[in-house]
Design goal:
Layout: E1 7-10, E2 16-17, E3 33-36, H1 75-81, E4 90-95, H2 101-114, E5 119-123, H3 128-137, E6 146-149, H4 153-161, E7 168-172, H5 189-206, E8 209-214, H6 227-231, E9 234-239, E10 246-254, E11 262-268, E12 271-274, E13 293-300, E14 303-315, E15 324-327, H7 331-345, E16 352-358, H8 370-382, E17 390-392, E18 395-396, E19 402-403, H9 408-417, E20 422-425, E21 437-440, H10 444-452
Parallel strand pairs: 4-8, 4-9, 5-6, 5-7, 7-8, 15-16, 17-20, 20-21
Antiparallel strand pairs: 1-2, 1-3, 9-10, 10-11, 11-12, 13-14, 14-16, 18-19
Helix pairs in contact: 8-10
Motif (RadA KNRFG motif): 253-257
Protein name: DNA repair protein RadA
GO cellular component, one term: cytosol
Amino acid sequence: MAKPKRRYVCAACGSLSTRWQGQCADCGEWNTLTEEAPQTVFSVKHDLSTGGRPIQFEPLDAKGEMPQRRSTGLPEFDRALGGGLVPGSAILMGGDPGIGKSTLLLQASAKIALGGGTVVYISGEEAAGQVRLRAERLGLGKAPIQLASATSVRDILTTLGAMEPPALLVIDSIQTMHSDQIEGAPGTVSQVRASAFELIRYAKDSGAALVLVGHVTKDGSIAGPRVLEHMVDVVMAFEGERSHQYRILRSLKNRFGPVDEIGVFAMAGQGLQEISNPSMLFLSGREDPVPGSAVFPAMEGTRPVLVEIQALIVRLQSGATPRRAVVGWDSGRMAMLLAVLEARCGLNFSSAEVYLNVSGGYRLADPAADLAVAAALVSALADRPLPKATTWFGEVSLAGEVRPVAHGAIRLREAAKLGFDSAHAPPESGPEVPGMRRHDIAMLNRLVDRIVGDT
């Protein structure tokens, strides 16, 4: 038997190293390398081709029953999950501290418990009395949730093995769980991986839906080894600023439904309230249009959401270096768009400060926002408001072309439903929508002409 080798695992990105160092060579984080428990390394002569149990193969077209989803009682939560909880599934939910993860899961647990389902809520961070006080504050004190405060995975699985499998098992959080089969303190890479593996195996064997709450790093990604995200079936992120009341539950990975579905909530005194029409949250609602404001119909999974993009251009008199500030969009993409406007359209942004904001704390990743951002920038530069009740969408290339994007008809229907009557979009953006006039824009310089009014 060969001598076990020491391995060090980065708690931020999960990369392996053969020696300890202060900074991870892969992600650049400091003081994140921890020693992993030594593993038994067999020699080359060790043969695994015999002594095992034969496995049974099944044809691809074998008949099987589709699992019946269980509703959480919160339609926005169900939408983000792809339709509800799948029995035997494992869900990992991450979010900043204080964003409302425990509140959301407590509300969903109460809905399921009041509907006749068995719910087990294990808290490793709070005492049972603290969770009970939160439930009373939310008006959920009468919900028949089986509540406990524990951190030992062995104790949790022993207790669950002596009872009927619950419909929902919540572990808050996985970083506090501890397995006595692995050396190390709770929260280390080996402990998080081993604890999650045992809990996921119980969920698969029993058919209980498992929700693991995970901590996040300073850049917003889920803490712990990356293998944890591969082990679970669904990865969800609960996003939002604590200074804003709105929260977005986003699906980052889903083996049972579409990815990038979102559920929108608003934090209120009685907990999280669902927002069935999120487009109204991200629009200003003012009567008269102002320069530098454009409305963009974004797509989040299968849901269209109308957001307002705001731009401000400030001319500098001195030779100071102008600032470029972006909130809610990619700063590199805005720099590229400014270069295209200068090179292809003859506009001058080099001597001006440029500020771009997506209202409502919303974050855009849709490339179709290029045309709306360009319209807001040109409108702010020319100090001319854009036409009222108009939306803008399309992807801009480096050659100044406006390229078609997916789901054009869905975007137009959502805009028409909210009272918009015209849209500037690339050609071939889908079929016509009743009540919506579509203005085709093939080149970016045509957009500038329409806003400035030269043609």
